[in-house]
Amino acid sequence: MKNIKKIAALAMTLVISTSIFAGCSAPGKSSSKETLNVFNWGEYIDDSIVKDFTKQTGIKVNYSTFSTNEEMYEKVKSGTNNYDLVCPSDYMVDRMIKENLVQPIDFSKLTNYKNIDDKYKNLSYDPKNKYSVPYMWGTIGIIYDKTQIKDNIDSWNVLWDTKYKDKIFMSDDMRNSLGISLKRLGYSMNSTNSSEIKKATDALIEQKKSINPVYIGDEVKDSLRNGEKPMAVIYSGDAAVLMKENPGKFEYVIPKEGTNKWFDSWVIPKNATNKDAAEKFLNFLLDAKVNKKNVDYIGYGTPNKATFDMLDAKDKNNKASYPDDTSLSNSEVFIDLGDARKAYSDAWVTAK
């Protein structure tokens, strides 16, 4: 989901590769000419894992990043870039399936798929587990520096409290910020009601005037580390990383009104040129030890049961990464908005 996600990622393409000389490849390694084009969220993988995959298989990985689902969608849909593997969120997986932008995955090649917990299969966006492989899951909430803020933070309303003028980072993501505004007003984060969308938009406009928040992406972690502001809307994994780095300083809360519970999954675009390599990479990522290395680095909740079983008690009980059912009771999974997409896009332009 989701770190998701940064302005710098718009201009950044990270190419991670290892050259394997022809004639020196070990058994099972591919030719050095074979490449895999991966498109993922910013700051959403341990780079060493990509290098390990290349070392093991000989497949060069061209790894680039995006900042929002909508950015990723436009690039995949345009067909100007031939990505072999991309990582959209739940509602975007649904949309891409509907629009025939992805192809079925050969699960017979994913021997490690057995590690995925059954509760992360047959989800609404891919009910037959045909097109996607779960990667990470999490929530969106509020993180604050409790050495500076002594109030009880438990509601989205705090983001509109004038006490915190010039002290708040908001999420630079359309669905996140409009969803928060809708939820705060008592509406669904997936509302398609024009009146509700307008009220949520007006609330963001008012917030901009009275609170002067800064909209930010993945760089929110560095900004919080640097003490630029004491409060931010943040993805759970980013919060977990900061809390681990600064025990006793940061607190993460899921507001009582509820939030977005999201799932990010890997899909193979219709125009992928190396489906076989994509499936090899997926199987590699599903390995319990590889996945644990990744989870330890990025901080998100894993759908990989074999990995979860390897976590120590402290990580399993981290409420940022693995919130309890009570905290999630009012949460919603984003769905594809269909005909209401334009209304949201227009609202987002107006609000910002």
From TrEMBL:
GO terms for molecular function: polyamine binding. Pfam families: SBP_bac_8. Keywords: Periplasm, Signal, Transport. Residues 1-22 form the signal peptide. Spermidine binds at residues 43, 91. It is found in: Periplasm. One of its GO terms (cellular component) is periplasmic space. It comes from the Bacteria. One of its GO terms (biological process) is polyamine transport. InterPro entries: SBP, Sperm_putr-bd. SUPFAM superfamilies: Periplasmic binding protein-like II. This is Spermidine/putrescine transport system substrate-binding protein.
